[in-house]
Amino acid sequence: MSLFASSVPGKWITSTIAGDTYYVRKLRAMSEVLTETRVRESLQGIQDPELRRTFGELGMIKQVTVKSPQSVEVQIELPTPAYPQRERLVEAVRQALAGQLPPDGQVDVTFTVKVKGKDSGGALGLRVKNVIAVGSGKGGVGKSTVAASIAFGLHTLGAKVGLMDADVYGPSIPHMLGAKGQPAVVEEMGGSGQPIRRIQPIECRGLKVMSMGFFVPPEEAVVWRGPMLHGAITQFLRDTDWGELDYLIIDMPPGTGDVSLTLSQLLGLAGAVVVCTPQQVALLDAVKALNMFRKVKIPVLGMVENMSGEIFGRGGVAKKAAELGVPFLGEIPIEPGLRIHGDEGRFAEIFSENNPSRPHLLHIAEQTAMQIARELLSEPKLPSLEVL
Ligand code: ADP
Fold first, then answer.
1. Which of 6-10, 177-181, 249-253 is the least confident region?
2. 3, 76, 164, 205: most buried by Cβ count inside 10 Å?
3. What is the pLDDT of residues 322-332, one digit of tens each?
4. Distance CA 355, CA 350 (A)
5. Better-scored residue on pLDDT, 312 or 300
6. With a 6 A CB cut-off, is 338 part of the ligand 1 pocket?
7. How far, in Å, CA of 321 to CA of 317, rounded?
8. How far apart are alpha carbons 104 and 133 in whole angstroms?
9. CB 308 within 8 A of CB 336
10. Contact 208, 245 (CB under 8 A)
């Protein structure tokens, strides 16, 4: 008598052989045999909860290995190491395969990451996948704090990250990070046989950092005229030895459009993040910053509310973002520890200890990276810049 004689086709039953219990079933057809192709077919239609497209459309199923009739390994490729709550994907894969494996079958889901980007630095010869500008309508709202948070956040999540302080009027990044020293200038032989001078960024806890603050004493005022500013920013971008980066975060000077225009001309930016405090007056400045980015054709990735709490209120930026049809990337509560860490040059420690600000900062880094991934799907082409 066949082992399956008593089973209904397609239905799993238990069978005890030599004291061990097995799940067995009678196949309805040969097409029910667990194969890589069948597993792939079952997974293609899963909708990615973040990107709102199917695994098939996104090409996310990197590898399927059928190890035995009751054990499958699925490797999923993510567009950024900052992809949040991956357990949702594990659950979706398990559910999609539930009918094909016995109830005690095993589905192992593993992840690989291939950071997607616009190859932002192409024209300048940079090997940087995504350049993100962090701006604000006015100073003091926490723009540098958010720029450093996105940079350290993405680094903490596994990305290769650089941070460029383009806030030439008040370069605060070196102080916040406790990054000291003067970047070395190294001469390299270029492709045409001509020597090229490359500036070595300062390494700070795995981050490559460049700032005018490394060259100018903090108490010294620098007066920048337009062409000089353009030259300095170009040099910082082009001549710094950034190496290969997944993300380069640029801390912009507040308000002004000059640097945005320069960046827009030099790079295909992934987009800009606009930082704002929740009260009404600050929101007006944020709208100006948004319009400024739009004018120079830098896509706006979203808005961040900083210093939420009793003093400035809460929720104003999310409301404004919804009104303007711009994504809201998260909020950072006002928290003395955040200021103290920055003041003492220990900003990076917020990411390595049980700090109350940490989840908020990581959330913003994740949302920024995911918004880039979404934008890449919806606008594969770079906008061309009109002459202003
Ligand atoms: P900006 O770059 O917009 O001028 P900064 O990031 O330099 O602003 O922040 C201004 C000051 O506010 C800094 O002392 C910083 O530590 C502090 N700060 C920023 N965000 C917060 C926050 N959420 N809670 C407490 N202090 C903050």
1. 6-10
2. 164
3. 999 999 999 99
4. 6
5. 300
6. yes
7. 6
8. 49
9. no
10. yes
pLDDT tens digits, residue range 207-258? 999 998 888 776 776 777 777 788 888 888 999 999 999 999 999 988 777 8
pLDDT band at 157 (very low <50, low <70, confident <90, very high): very high
**Is residue 107 within 8 Å of 72, Cβ to Cβ?**
yes
Tell me the one-letter amino acid at 99: G
Domains of the chain: 1-30 (no CATH), 33-113 (3.30.300.130), 122-378 (3.40.50.300)
Name the residue with tokens 């930016």.
Answer: 269
Return the ligand 1 atom nearest residue 334 CA.
24
Nearest CA among 74, 76, 82, 42 for reference residue 59 = 76
Centroid of ligand 1 to alpha carbon of 142 (angstroms): 4
Question: What's phi and psi for 321, nearest 5 deg?
Answer: -60, -45
Q: How far is the CA of 139 from the centre of ligand 1 (A)?
A: 9
Burial class (CB in 10 A: 0-12, 13-18, 19+), 169: middle
